[in-house]
Amino acid sequence: MSNIIYIGYEFKVTPLQPAVEILIAELGYAGFESFVETDQGVTAYIQKEEWQADILDDIQILNSDEFEISYEFSEIEQTNWNAEWEKNFSPIVVDDSCAVRAPFHDKFDTEYDIIIEPKMSFGTGHHETTHMMIQHILKNDFKGKSVLDMGCGTGVLAILAEMKGAQTIDAVDYDNWCYLNSLENVERNNCEYITVIEGDAAVLKGKKYDVVIANINRNILLQDLETYASCMNANGTIFLSGFYNDDIPVIQEACEKQLLKFEEKLERNHWVALKFIN
């Protein structure tokens, strides 16, 4: 990775929270690979070959009146990216029962202990959406269920689903880095029932699941929701996240068109995670 050229963005944010968390999540969906929080905001990195001049056009928080956000960007060469990422990666514990940590962190006294190699993939549990999806999985029955983790990132949600008793799990992501990182994390957590697949919604043709987990941005959810719904078994459950509280009406309308019934909402710093059943 030493020869890969990156574009680094230095964001200054006032006030810091929840703006930094929202900004990180939005940048992650836009293709930024990793983030380092600073005293003034956050530094975000994206590969130069993935960068475009309009990369920030869809970052909604930059247009918010609630926060003051400025930025500068420059080209950099990352010589030891993973070392920098590891230095800034902290473990988390969700609802006192699920820990998400790196291999170099001490083990927590929790029922579920997930080890994630802290590379560039989205889904370490630190983002609001992943945190809430972990909460949903902890609260629901997965024993013996077939599960789809769509947009799996690091594979953390698929791994927790197996720990909760799921026995057939597909973890899907179109990003090659996420695909490779999920493979590594599935092996690291000694998972036996997870199949990691590189691709988009097209790979779901003919597949059926008891539970669908989709932590993706709003536009992709709306685009692919019909496909997700068609993959659900009778009496199935779908968990959706990757969007704001203000987006609920359009998401709920799309779900109702697929005969999905709203059941529960979790909210965390403007982000939401919804549960629907068919």
TrEMBL record:
Keyword terms, alphabetized: Cytoplasm, Methyltransferase, Ribonucleoprotein, Ribosomal protein, S-adenosyl-L-methionine, Transferase
Binding site for S-adenosyl-L-methionine: 130, 151, 173, 215
SUPFAM superfamilies on file: S-adenosyl-L-methionine-dependent methyltransferases
Keyword GTP-binding: no
Catalytic activity: L-lysyl-[protein] + 3 S-adenosyl-L-methionine = N(6),N(6),N(6)-trimethyl-L-lysyl-[protein] + 3 S-adenosyl-L-homocysteine + 3 H(+)
Gene Ontology CC: one annotated term: ribosome
E.C. numbers: 2.1.1.-
Keyword Zinc: no
Family: Belongs to the methyltransferase superfamily. PrmA family.
Protein name from the UniProt record: Ribosomal protein L11 methyltransferase
Organism this protein belongs to: Pseudotamlana haliotis
Organism phylogeny: Bacteria, Pseudomonadati, Bacteroidota, Flavobacteriia, Flavobacteriales
